[in-house]
Design goal:
Helix content: 55-70%
CATH topology of one domain: Arc Repressor Mutant, subunit A
Strand order of the largest sheet: 1-2
CATH architecture of one domain: Orthogonal Bundle
Order of helices and strands: HHHHHEEH
Radius of gyration: 27 Å
Structural class: mainly alpha
């Protein structure tokens, strides 16, 4: 027991000094990239990825009417609680919901302010689309005016 402790301490010190630039990877742990939304682009990607799933969109619609527990959110779906929890984790990682702790309850709360960044991004493209449609309308009016003058 003492020998194991001494070996562990020596190995730890050796790794700190000699191999400080190496990373130790636990092969039994599944490593995934987590999205903490460090930049605005990461935040947008996380938001749109979360909104890509119809189940998550309907969960957000449900939370518009007020906070709800995981069981309340899971009720309309034919899926397990762990599956709903995974959806909630994606929404939480995107910043679209928060989960509080109230005794044994963990109510989910919609963070609608997070959608503001995505709305602003879409708004820039909406203006572009509307401008294109306005140009198309002007062009069609010009064609119609030309065709009516030719007929007369």
């Amino acid at each position: 027991m003492v020998v194991n402790l001494i070996c562990t301490l020596l190995l730890t010190e050796l790794c700190k000094t000699r191999y400080s630039n190496l990373m130790v990877i636990n092969q039994t742990v599944k490593y995934t990239k987590t999205t903490n939304a460090h930049t605005s682009e990461d935040a947008l990607n996380a938001i749109f990825a979360a909104l890509a799933d119809p189940t998550r969109r309907s969960i957000l619609l449900r939370l518009r009417s007020g906070d709800a527990t995981v069981n309340e959110l899971a009720a309309p779906y034919a899926m397990s609680l762990p599956a709903i929890s995974k959806h909630l984790k994606v929404l939480e990682a995107a910043g679209l919901i928060t989960r509080a702790r109230n005794a044994q309850w963990r109510p989910c709360h919609l963070e609608a302010e997070t959608l503001k960044g995505a709305t602003e991004w879409l708004e820039a493209y909406r203006e572009l689309w509307e401008g294109s449609l306005d140009n198309l309308a002007v062009y069609l009016q010009k064609i119609q005016a030309t065709s009516t003058t030719k007929e007369q």
